[in-house]
Amino acid sequence: MKIKKKIPLIDQHDKNGFWGGKFGGNYIPETLKKPIEDLEILFGKLRRDRKFIIDRDKYFKNWVGSPTRFIKLENLTKNLGGAQIWAKVVSDANGGAHKIYNATVHCLIAKKAGKKFIVGDTGAGYAGKMLSMAAKKFGLRCKIFMGAKDIKRQKPNCDAMKKNGAEIVPVYSGSQTLVDAVSECMRYWVSNCDTTHMCVGSTVGPNIFVKICGWSTAQISKELKLQLKEKFKKIPKKIKLINCVGGGSSAYGFWSEFIDYKKSQIELIGVEAGGPKKSKLHAAPLSKGASLGILHGAASYVCQTKEGQINETESISAGLDYPGVSPMHCFLKDSKRARYTFASDEEALSAYQLVTKYEKLNPSLEPCHAFAEAIKIAPRLSKNSIIIVNSCGDAKKDRDILKNRLKKT
Amino acid sequence: MNKSLIRLAFKKVKKEKRAALLTYIVAGDNTKKKSLEILNSISNNADICEIGFPHNTPIADGGQIQTSSYRALKNGIKINDVFQIVKKFKLIKKSKPVILMGYYNVIFQYGENKFIARCKKTGVNGIIVVDLPYPENKKFADKCKKKSIDFIQLISPTTSQSRVKKIIKDSHNMIYYISMLSTTGGKLKVSTNKILKNYNKIKKINKNKNFVIGFGITEKNISKLKSADGLVVGSAICNEITKSLYKKQNPVTNVSIMVKKLKHKIL
User: Fold this and answer.
1) What superfamily does domain B5-265 belong to in CATH?
2) pLDDT at A173 over 90
3) CA–CA min distance A177, chain B (Å)
4) I want to staple B72 with a disulfide (CB 3.0 to 4.6 A). Which of A154, A352, B5, B77 is the partner?
């Protein structure tokens, strides 16, 4: 399995939609064939349409707030000793997380497709919040599917969705988390694909949704590349880009411009949710050796039983609490371009404590998984090594969890 | 020679000048024993029996079939049990066609070839894979054909005309027409006339193939669709099982009465 150079990873799939010959594809009900084909054609056109790109960039700049900051975490670096630790503060973006890029692009596409309704799934609530914001901005009616368990644990984001006029549809089936929200959202789309546009909240789902999302979040690494050249005059020799991975949309966006670089110069490290230390459940299909399976229209490594039933997952971070992962990350793993590991709930929490103690930064529990890995490896590295963590979400939404958990421990 | 039991079933009902009745239940709902009993009993009135192998992330199923699937899985149903149920059923009703229906991941984990071979061995006559659309399903469909198992293609109201033609051309004996844009068991949101109009347009392309209509069919609307080659009732039956269990009544009796009524409505 080999990655090609000079072609965006989102385009390195075969004609059936598979990356590396086996990840991705379109395992969809017949009813969705046509709407997905229509979307493929429309997106194919729009991404080559200069006016559309100008539009997108205008919204990214003026509304999302690009570029987000790229800062050195001086105190954390000093305290840990070893590598320099930097952060790309993507949570600066309007709404407080990277999900705004995908949401904005999907709304722009929905408008071009002449759709008046948009639906989306959400776990941590950021994808939902951003979609509700963008829908409001672009005058689309919006419905968000969210697991009942997540509605409880991510209340601040739910409040925001409601304020933006979106309807939250609670999902009570299965584990009542992101996996069920995505299923229910797809079911809704099967029934309403004639009037409604669907936004899949991450780089998962049928091929075209992986592509649209990756194309949108790629903004992060485009900015970072320029910022690196600004700060260091050229791209430094030893970089590690550390990102949390649930579905994998922020990680893909953080890495996309750097995939062509040699691994020895720019290492890509994905950190999945290892779940509670004492639990057997986790949401780490890549780093805990899950097998290939089909979930939500795509083949990827999936936490599942031998019989192909999808496993329940467990993580303190709702945004990473997903049994599957982007086919592009499976491809990056098997081609050995990226390395994947996991952090436990407890490690993410202590990372949160350490980062907030030393820095004026308030990363949500998702990027805290990435910080946990940075904290782990930084002391062992030399001073000319540069660790960059994508701080892709703000912890406002985790207010209740943090209050509970940090009081207890 | 095409000795498909499915084809023969349609031939038989055509002689009787009526539509075929196809029923769907989830294997193991609510237990292995009960679902076999239900199957045995309803097959007296059903022409073709669809049996679902449950999956816990069914993206095209509505609430009723989801409930049945979760119930079966909770009671510990495994793919091996599904085949056991079919095997036992076939010992009693050898000539009743059985179609297995489910999601691709279950087949993928079992292994395509192994799955088809096991189907052949246990007497399965047809397979429907909800999330393996045309043309991606061509290879799998060919493998089925080699073992004389009908792979059943689906066509939906969103399927373009050119695609419909291709699907029919590559189809086996039976084709499943999805009545409307919906998951299984949705309320009919288009008129039965409109459904039949679409149906006839497709049927005209190849009159030798057997087309059945499914999704949203209940006791209330089935008689209005009886000019089709066949009609599938699934969610209504699953819902009847749920209701019976809730009322602590025997689902075998209740479902059998329901299927008998359905049959009478299309005579």
Assistant:
1) Aldolase class I (3.20.20.70)
2) no
3) 12
4) B77
